[in-house]
Write a structure and sequence with these properties.
CATH topology of the largest domain: Alkaline Phosphatase, subunit A
CATH architecture of the largest domain: 3-Layer(aba) Sandwich
Structural class: alpha/beta
Number of helices: 12
Largest sheet: 8 strands, mixed
Number of domains: 2
Helix content: 25-40%
Strand content: 5-15%
CATH superfamily of the largest domain: Alkaline Phosphatase, subunit A
Order of helices and strands: HHEEHEEHEHHEEHHHEHEEEHH
Length: 402
């Protein structure tokens, strides 16, 4: 990603090289263009033409969400046996789903979406990653191939096939969006924003350099769109709810992208899981609610894909938590989703039904569900899907409203 650095360009006759470098370094420190170097003029042809543009938001939960504490299998008698403390740790009643499942009580917004048939939970999924390393598991999920390729992500390949544009709300381009040039990154600066007169001075310096002049204009446009540095709210900078809000402002701008990627970490709950997931799931739920509010009418054209690298052990450990596992869960949310039901096959929690007698047994593949979504939402053909997921077969379930 290109940094906002101008020291290689010619200097004004009235400013020495050294003083100019110092001035620009200080003046541009807080500008959003530091992390959003490309122009906002990146709309796909469908957006430019004013046509309905189906959108995808890819949300990666880093750290391995415990699906059994999130989509609780109250139907399975073994659940309380495996988790005598965790099964009694919920401070509020579970939120009922069909087939004997229930959502964690912190997921109030997601449950209301389920009731209005805009949320589809999928149980017992995995990416096909065979081990239990967080970093490799995340890389495998983001890559979408049978072997990890750190330079090519499934979402990057998808937008290249369909000539779409993406936004990564991240300090750097995540693997999911690597290999495509049609990706912008944005993340709020932690530095103090500069005064308007400083930007006016920069504009004077850049008047004879089209590249820098356009980059400055783009940065100011982003700053005005998502708000400049947080000021009094600086301590909240980087919070998921704020990132979600900024994401929607960029996506619903006149020439916003077709898809975006968000990340939320903190799911590695080896200890004190009940209290930690109360907080993390509430944070997730609040950020998702902000996505819906910010997208406005675009919510009806949007699917949010929520996934994590793998699940956690079926049995609780001795420190009130769970350890790295295999089978997990996937969520599809959005106004376009045909929800109000629980998808995926439940394998059971008896010892002989567990993977390696310790983990939830996966019954379906995450890439199969995402491929299914791409076929419906972005009209991928079978041949096009092979370019995105070379080794996965998409499912044939009705995931979207007709």
């Amino acid at each position: 990603m290109r940094n906002f650095n101008t020291t290689e360009h010619s200097c004004s006759e009235n400013v020495s090289d050294i003083s100019r470098r110092k001035f620009i370094k200080t003046a541009s420190a807080g500008l959003a263009v530091l992390s959003f170097p490309m122009s906002l003029s990146f709309a796909s042809e469908s957006v430019k033409a004013g046509n309905k543009s189906p959108k995808i938001i890819w949300l990666l939960l880093r750290g391995a969400l415990d699906s059994l504490h999130t989509i609780v299998p109250t139907l399975d008698a073994e659940y309380k046996t495996l988790r005598p403390k965790l099964s009694k740790s919920f401070k509020s009643p579970l939120l009922p789903l069909e087939k004997g499942f229930a959502l964690h009580p912190s997921l109030k917004n997601m449950h209301s979406w389920y009731q209005e048939k805009s949320l589809l939970p999928v149980v017992s999924v995995y990416s096909g990653y065979p081990k239990r390393s967080h970093f490799d598991g995340q890389d495998f999920l983001e890559c979408g191939k049978s072997e990890i390729d750190h330079d090519s992500g499934w979402l990057a390949r998808a937008i290249d096939v369909k000539n779409k544009r993406a936004l990564a709300v991240s300090r750097s381009t995540p693997i999911s969006l690597r290999s495509s040039v049609q990706v912008n990154t944005w993340y709020p600066s932690k530095l103090k924003d500069s005064d308007d007169d400083v930007y006016d001075a920069l504009a004077q310096l850049y008047q004879y350099d089209d590249a820098l002049k356009n980059q400055l204009a783009s940065g100011l446009e982003v700053r005005d769109l998502v708000g400049s540095s947080m000021g009094k709210k600086k301590k909240r900078q980087g919070k998921f709810i704020d990132l979600a809000k900024s994401c929607t402002k960029l996506m619903t701008s006149a020439q916003g992208p077709d898809c975006a990627m968000l990340e939320l970490g903190g799911w590695d709950t080896h200890n004190n899981q009940a209290a930690r997931l109360n907080q993390k799931l509430a944070e997730l739920d609040g950020g998702l609610a902000e996505l819906r509010t910010g997208l406005g009418k675009e919510w009806q054209n949007t699917v949010v894909v929520i996934a994590t690298e793998f699940g956690r052990t079926a049995k609780e450990n001795g420190t009130g938590g769970t350890d790295h596992g295999t089978g997990s869960a996937l969520f599809l949310a959005g106004g376009a989703v045909n929800g109000g039901k629980v998808s995926g096959a439940w394998p059971g929690l008896k010892t002989e039904q567990l993977f390696e007698q310790r983990d939830l047994m996966p019954t379906t593949n995450s890439f199969g569900w995402i491929g299914n979504l791409l076929a419906e939402h972005w009209h991928f053909t079978e041949q096009e899907l092979k370019q995105v997921f070379p080794d996965a077969t998409p499912y044939n379930e009705s995931l979207l409203k007709s």
